Every structure is written in structure tokens, then in C-alpha cells.
Amino acid sequence: EAQSGFRRTARLAPADAATAGALLAAGRLVAFPTETVYGLGADATDAGAVADLYAAKGRPAFNPLISHVPSAPDAMRLGRFDAHARVLAEAFWPGPLTLVVPVTEDCPVSDLARAGLATLALRVPAHPLARAVLAAAGRPIAAPSANRSGRVSPTTAAHVFDDLAGRIDAVLDGGATHVGVESTIVACFGAEVRMLRPGGVSRAELERVLGRPLDGDVADDAARPLAPGRLLSHYAPAAPVRLDATEVRPGEALLAFGPLVPGAESATAVENLSPTGDLREAAANLFAALRRLDAAGPAAIAVAPIPSDGLGEAIRDRLERAAAPR
Ligand code: TXA
Ligand code: MG
After folding, report:
1. What confidence tier does 260 reach under pLDDT thresholds 50, 70, 90?
2. Is 246 known to sit in a ligand binding site?
3. TM segments (predicted)?
4. 85-89 long-range contacts, Cβ below 8 Å, gap at least 24?
5. Do the beta carbons of residue 153 and residue 110 sit within 8 Å?
6. How many domains does the chain have?
7. Taking a C-beta distance cutoff of 8 angstroms, is the pair 82, 189 a contact?
8. pLDDT by residue (tens digit) across 19-30?
9. Is this prediction's ipTM beyond 0.95?
10. What is the pTM of this model?
11. Cα–ligand 2 centroid distance for 292 (angstroms)
């Protein structure tokens, strides 16, 4: 893993969003909140800044990054939008959707941020602080989730400090993010529309707006991920994760959803994603709950069954990766 030099990591308040943007424009690494998770920003047009970002995360450099921009017209200068991409951008931006489209000829995003691909991932976030940062930066900002590579994504500034203090220049603290799972990634090219990663916009919402089903599913194809870097083992807590647990075994912590499963009273720790079984609430709580359970040092984390409709698809995807063999 590449070493990044020690940096003093400043905590910025919401009123400092313009400072965060100016630091990014100067080639520094700044984490900021989006409505999904905290992103670790770098100037996408500056290959040096992007190289620093990969080093700070300890991320394999073949993994391309999402470029964040303030508006759909900005995005349309960087990528070529077909009819499907336009419909989706119109319906869901700003918001938790990333579109992968062919890159324009004179696109200033560095090859390193795109991992040399002919396509580009673009997102217009809705979080007011993210929007203020992007407006102040005045250029596309590459921003993967602000965690060390392979770790659970951060939904608070404290999570970012836990993983990246000393490795990045600043964290803009905007409190807890409200969606809680990353953006849905949809690829639009060659007349097809494919979901590359389930996320904050559900499959049903996408299909309703498109007026047709999505094309062939690649989100589950771990052997040949269309989104490079969708490694099967990802979002990994230190403790092993056991899915669809209908009881808690000795030494296990419980990640509950709805009513508690048998044995919950003897669990080493319990977090309930949503006592009422609300998938939106569960998504918002997911990563913080995983971090808290992991900190309790259990033999394993037992995860109660979670339905796969709506945001459940994204929640189950993250948990399946957390449970995958490392
Ligand atoms: O919600 C989010 O999307 C967060 C916030 C910070 O915006 N960002 C995020 O970025 O999750 P990251 O880097 O953790 O995930 C980016 C994903 C990776 O799986 C990558 O492989 C995929 O996007 N990706 C990027 N460019 C791509 C491309 N040209 N084709 C296919 N997949 C691409
Ligand atoms: Mg990530």
C-alpha cells in the first residue's frame, strides 16, 4: 500500500464550505458530507491530487472514481448523455444517483480519476454542503467514500477521522448523512440502461421513471464486475458477518431489523437498524451500526433477515459484501 505523508487534518464547520472548496481547487484532500455518505474529495482534473487521494485511501488505482459536479448542465459538458441518461438526470438530480456515460472528447477529468476508461461516472449530489463545496471548487471533484479502502463507509465526520486522520487535509463536518448508503450507479450507453450498484435510488423508482425494466443485471456478477472495483469483499468490519440469522449464537452481536430474533437477550451487543422495519431508516443507520457492533469486538455479527425491495436491495448488497470471504 502506498504511503501518504502525515498531514494535520483540520475540522471545518458548515460555515467553512467555501474554504473546503478552495482547498480542493488548490489540490488538497478534503472530506465533505453528501446525502449518501461522506466523500473524500480531490480535484478530478489534477492527476497529482487524485494520486494523493488513492494513497490516502489505500485504494487500488485501477478503481475509477465518481466526478461530482454542481448541476446536470455541468455533467453534460463532461459526458455524453443519451435519451435514457437525460431522463434519469432530470428525475433524480440532484440526488443519490450516479450515471456512467461515454466521456466527451475534451473532458478535463484526469485519466487517473477515470482509470483510463472511455466512460465517466458523474453525480450531482443534493446535500447543501456538498453543493456549496462544489460551487466554490469550480471544477469536477472526484470523491469516493471517505474511508480506508475496504472499510465500512462513513456517515459521520467522526467516522472519517477514525479512518483518515493524519492522511487528509480537512473534514467538513455536516453531521450525520441521511440516506446512509452510497448512490445507485446506472450505466447508460449503447441504448442499454444497467444498474452497476444498488443504492439510494431504488430499482423500482428507476424503472418507473424510465417506463421500462432495466437491462441485464450486473450488480451480482462478482466475478466480472462492470463497475471495476466492486470487489466482493468490501465494507468489511473486523468481525465475521453472518447473514439472514434467525437466532443469535453465543458470542455474537446482533444487527437487528424489526422485532428481535431469539437469543437477542444474550447477544454481546445489539443494534436495531429500524425497530419498525422501515428500510429508509435502516439504510441511514447501517454503516454507523456496523461500526459500533464491530467496536464491541464480538465473535461474529449476526444479521437479521432484511427484505430486498426498495432500499433493501442496497442494504443487502452492502451486507453481502461485508459477509464475503476475505
Ligand atoms: O454515494 C456515493 O456514490 C459516494 C459519495 C461520496 O458520492 N461515492 C462513492 O464512490 O461511493 P466510490 O468511489 O466509493 O464508488 C464509486 C464506484 C466504484 O464501484 C467504481 O468502480 C464505479 O463507481 N465507477 C466509477 N467510474 C466508473 C466507470 N466509468 N464505469 C463503471 N463503474 C465506475
Ligand atoms: Mg466506497
Report:
1. very high
2. no
3. none
4. 85/188, 87/209, 87/210, 88/186, 88/188, 88/193, 88/206, 88/209, 88/210, 89/124
5. no
6. 2
7. yes
8. 999 999 999 999
9. yes
10. 0.91
11. 19
Which protein residue has the closest C-alpha to ligand 1 atom 19? 230
Specify the ligand 1 atom closest to the Cα of 66: 25
* Same structural domain, 157 and 115: yes
**CA–CA distances in Å: residue 228 to residues 30, 128, 255, 295:** 24, 29, 29, 30
The residue written with cell numbers 468481525 in the block is 239
Among residues 321, 260, 261, the alpha carbon closest in space to that of 286 is found at 321
**Residues near ion ligand 2 (Cβ under 5 Å):** 145
Mark which of 192, 210, 228 sits at the end of a domain: 210
Report if residue 236 sits inside a domain. Answer: no
- Give the Cα separation of 319 and 70 in Å (integer): 31
Phi then psi dihedrals of residue 95, to 5 deg: 165, -175
Is residue 233 situated within a structural domain? Answer: no
Point out the ligand nearest to the CA of residue 68: 1
Q: Where are the beta strands (DSSP E) in the chain?
A: 10-12, 30-33, 38-43, 66-68, 97-102, 119-123, 141-142, 170-172, 184-189, 192-197, 241-242, 252-256, 270-272, 300-303
